[in-house]
Write a structure and sequence with these properties.
6 helices; alpha+beta; elongated
């Protein structure tokens, strides 16, 4: 009998509290800063892709949600500083469990996760993101690949000294040093 009054006590205590309503589509609530949301393929400061098509992210994915096919760079068409680049890159968000193992497996820090979380769609085909959808946008000073390397002569300059070279000698998109 006493449990009956305890239950009504909970009901009456919440009856007169202010109701919290979230206006979700209009008022977009921010995600936590370290939330694992949509993936992003990053670029070097000159615009070349960081992905070298090694397929380690696909091997590390427990849900088999990532498909990578590497291609070879040539002097006429250079997409990344190394010998290879990710020619085809797809992530199937119907399978992705957001675990972040692909991020840990990436040796070049090419693949990261943003805190964007709106991934729902009513079309299954739209939830397979391609390389073009996953690539980071071009920032000022970046050039759309393919183009020659601008931060050094070889991939050692990009991966070891790349960030310091980019800050020390900014270049315009034509490759000339800015003075």
């Amino acid at each position: 009998m006493f449990d009956f009054f305890k239950g009504f006590g909970v009901t009456f205590s919440t009856m007169f509290k202010k109701v919290v309503t979230e206006e979700y589509p209009e008022d977009f609530p921010p995600a936590a800063p370290r939330y694992h949301g949509r993936h992003q393929l990053n670029r070097h400061p000159d615009g070349l892709e960081k992905c070298v098509g090694c397929e380690l992210c696909a091997w590390a994915c427990p849900a088999d949600a990532i498909y990578v096919e590497g291609g070879d760079n040539t002097e006429e068409a250079r997409y990344s500083p190394g010998e290879r680049y990710g020619a085809i890159y797809q992530i199937n968000y119907l399978r992705c469990i957001g675990c972040g193992l692909c991020i840990e497996a990436c040796p070049t820090r090419s693949l990261t996760m943003t805190n964007f979380y709106e991934l729902a769609d009513d079309n299954r085909q739209d939830l397979i993101y391609t390389k073009e959808q996953l690539m980071a946008p071009l920032l000022p000073g970046m050039e759309q690949p393919p183009h020659p390397m601008r931060l050094g002569d070889d991939e050692q300059d990009y991966y070891v000294q790349g960030p310091s070279l980019a800050k020390a000698s900014p270049q315009d998109p034509t490759g000339d040093q800015v003075r």
